[in-house]
Amino acid sequence: MLKIKRSIFIKNILNFSTYLWFIKYQLKYKKIKIKIMWIVNDLNLKKQARDLGVKFWQTPGFLFLMLGLIAITIMTATFFISRNYDSPELLVVTESSVVIIVLVVGNLVIKMVEQITRLNKMKSEFVSVASHQLRTPLSAIRWETELLLCKFRKEKVNGKQRASIENINTLSNKMTRLINDLLDVARIDQGRLIIKKMPVNLATITKEALSGSSALIQEKKIEITFSDKKVPLVFGDPEKLRMVVENLIGNAIKYTTNHGKIEVKIIRKGEFVIFSIKDNGVGIPLEQHGRVFDKFFRSDNIVKYQTEGTGLGLYIAKNIIEQLGGDIWFDSVEGLGSIFSFSIPLSKKTKEPKILKEV
Q: Angle between the 238-254 and 202-212 helix axes, to the nearest 10 degrees?
């Protein structure tokens, strides 16, 4: 009997060891595949030209590739010429040719980078000015609709009229949020995003964000679990952290199908508090993992779900978390779901800090 139990125990250990090895192999394979995809994307010159809005031959990848090919060709020619001719003048001419070509191509690259930088600065300034100009009339529209809804009760307006006013108010609120996002992006690009650091209760912010999304959660019949384990205060900006948490929760709800599950956890890890949200939604394709935190990025597989979004939320969240001294990361499998996490330093009032270990 003891021998049977011992053999079963050994078998379970071996099965568990095999499982761990398989998980490690999958993670290693995934990292290698992502790196290969990044290299392939870097060599995709047509995509570079389309993204930068320049001609094919003006892309940095093409210019550097041509620079390398020309330099290799001239150096090879110099080697064979030096073997057949002893003329030092010829070597000086060939070496000078290499230097001239490097300087010319390098100058083209520098000019193109400067042009892109100027255009990016002009774009940020335009977005900032336009957003400020748009926010004023939108605020007036929102105030007027709210005034109408409060002033005229059900007996003074019929159902259709009230629905129209409510629709105007809802759309103006959406436009205001979009403009605020554009302003935040402009401030981030210009290095003017203001961060106010103070002790913050991340668990309270999370509960309020979940409460604010309760209507959509009930509509989609999503099962929500939240665990905070009495974590200490963090050191951050309450308003900005609220934006990050609301964005992550909103994304999880939008991209989780009806009757899905979402798990929210807040734990302490050394000198940091870790927030993580897990869903069993649509997930993100592996080849697009490297672009998740880019501006205006939306994965291809969510288009069919027709969800609203600008692709700015994760870009803003990443910059906010990094400016607060934390980090943000994710893991996602298409068709299975995603886990988004971020870390925030503990408040200075928290005692007995420990070193953060790798999560």
A: 40
Q: Which pTM was predicted?
A: 0.65
Q: Alpha-carbon distance 205 to 94, whole Å? A: 67
pLDDT in tens, 230-255: 788 999 899 999 999 999 999 899 88
Specify whether the CB–CB gap between 131 and 100 falls below 8 A: no
Q: Which residue has the higher pLDDT, 258 or 174?
A: 258
Calculate the alpha carbon distances from 163 to 169, 170, 341 in Å. Answer: 10, 10, 39
Phi, psi for 263 (deg, rounded to 5): -115, 125
Residue 73: per-residue pLDDT: 78
User: Which one-letter DSSP state was computed for residue 346?
Assistant: B
Structure tokens at 233: 């205060």
User: Which 3 state secondary structure label does DSSP give 340?
Assistant: strand
Residue partners of 356: CB distance under 8 A and separation at least 6: 269, 270, 271, 272, 343
Q: Produce one character per residue of 283-310: b if its CB has 16 or more CB atoms within 10 Å, e if not.
A: bbeebbbeebbeeebebeebeeeeeeee
Indicate the SS3 state at residue 24. Answer: helix
